[in-house]
Amino acid sequence: MAYNYRYFRPFVGTQQTIGSGAITNEKIAPNAVTSDKIKDGEVTSADIKDGTIKLEDLGPDIPAINIVDGSITEAKLANDSVSDAKLKTGSVVGSKIGAGAVTVTKLANDAVETVKIKDAQVTAAKAAAGFGRYVPRKAVAEDKVKADFTLDNAWHIDGLDLSAIIPAGAIGVVLQMKIISDTVGDVLIVGNDSVAYPVCEGRAEACVADTVLVKHIVLPCEANRLFDYVGYGFAGVADVWVTVLGWFI
Length: 249
Fold this sequence. Notes:
single chain; 4-stranded antiparallel beta sheet; 5-stranded antiparallel beta sheet; Jelly Rolls; rod-shaped; 2 domains; 1 helix; mainly beta
């Protein structure tokens, strides 16, 4: 039987004449599928290739109604694809920020104000050297006794080692010095770099025989936490004690 093409021409290429699955990927011309060709809610996460959504793709040409909720995951976004202009004011709330996401590089200079710091959160470990804070120490016994000193009327440079007590980074120390002697005039002097800085020292001197004299001194502290000392006199019966009461950081 012969068919006349002109009778079927009006139906060629219409929905009625296109078989199921006949329009394959190679049949679709570039840029042929526009927004109005996509049914609302039909673009799911599985349809989006990882890393394909770039900054230039996020424009008014893709209405939100065409995208299924939750379909644009982190994997679908290319690096640097979400600019400030794409974020609605106030839309980045606390629940949108991942744990540990705010790193030091994310904080602008002067971003952390006093009101943003919770009380008691700045510990000694967080304070930089030179911060100027005093850290008291509760000593239960004297740190150094007479047997720890050589009391021979000569300076002992770096002879008093307090590095096991005073922490690294300390810039100053408060010492308690006690002395008792049966001879008036016995004296223990402790200093910091006493050769170069002879005024950076403190002393405990027996002004009254057989009476305990207590002195508190403040000295600068070097990185090694070693101090110089000298003991004059001590020919009779005497005792000396030195205790660290605190330090400055």
